[in-house]
Design a protein that fits this description.
single chain, mainly beta, four-stranded antiparallel β-sheet, 8 strands, about 0% helix
Length: about 140
């Protein structure tokens, strides 16, 4: 039975855009999954980080092993801004879909932006995705 180990590592930089002084927050993220069967999805990362009392960035990634040993990673990145970091006011979202060939590493950047009037809040995820074929 073939085994793939998928590893994600990275960071996020969030900017809570303010009139007098922006608040900047950073955080690291990581996750891994072992995939033994083709077509069986597995959660890779579920991440959330607030910033400045008004902004929150989220990232959810799932992965699935393909029959040739490649791994398909799907997910979504979201940026919220409101009266608290717990707001449900979604400002930007990006659907993500990456193919990581077996034995390879890829790097991806995801940028989110609040484009509303007086917006300017941003989140930038930098991700390294590794597909290790273990057996």
């Amino acid at each position: 039975m073939a085994l793939n180990v998928v590893v994600v590592s990275g960071n996020v930089r969030i900017v809570d855009d303010e009139v007098f002084r922006d608040e900047v927050c950073t955080a690291t993220l990581s996750g891994s999954a072992q995939l033994t069967s083709e077509g069986q999805p597995s959660e890779l990362v579920e991440f959330s980080k607030g910033c400045g009392g008004e902004v929150r960035a989220e990232l959810d990634l799932n992965c699935v092993r393909l029959d040739n040993g490649d791994v398909k990673i799907n997910g979504e990145a979201r940026l919220y801004e409101g009266t608290s970091e717990n707001t449900g006011d979604l400002e930007d979202t990006k659907s993500l879909s990456y193919l990581v060939p077996k034995g390879r590493t890829i790097t991806k950047t995801v940028k989110l932006r609040n484009t509303e009037t007086f917006g300017g809040d941003t989140a930038k995820f930098t991700l390294t995705l590794v597909n290790i074929q273990a057996a």
